[in-house]
Amino acid sequence: MSIMAIGNRAVVAQLLLTGALWCLGFTSALGQGPSRPRFDELSPKDTAQLDRQRAVIATIVKQRYGSSLFHSTKDLPVLQRLIDDAAFNKSQTYELQSLGVAFGDVLSSALPLHWVMITDEYGTDPTLRYKRTSVNVNALTMISKRVERGERVNLSELLRITREQLTNVEEKSR
Questions:
Q1: Taking the alpha carbons of 121, 126, 130, 131 in that order, is the dihedral positive or negative?
Q2: What is the per-residue pLDDT across 60-88, written as a single tens digit (0 to 9) for each?
């Protein structure tokens, strides 16, 4: 294989990785754009807001299926069922983002992610930060954006891809 072909494959691989990260809802401050994002620990007010959103989903899960949430991968089937049953339509942004919070709890239980607040050129929002890096997963909108676009959402697949992409980030940083 020629050097040119190898170089082209590397460029394509990087584009695919970047595309996959953006499709998942990842962002990463690589010194690009107007300014690097700032990460802050959750304030009591931020925690209370996330807890209100968790409660929205917990209430609906209890009403519809008689189940509880565990904030772990045990929640995947019931959260997927909410999506498959179209419990929320695409105009119910708050509820869909609340579902994103519940899924974010699953992600943070399975991966080295933790809830923080990110402030960037778009404002201040909760996000899942990967370790102490600038890589973050926008779980809040990961589901809502897909539902609003009419895309099929497979939470197990999103978890798998997120795990894979974080592994790639880790390997590239070595």
A1: positive
A2: 999 999 999 999 999 999 999 999 999 99
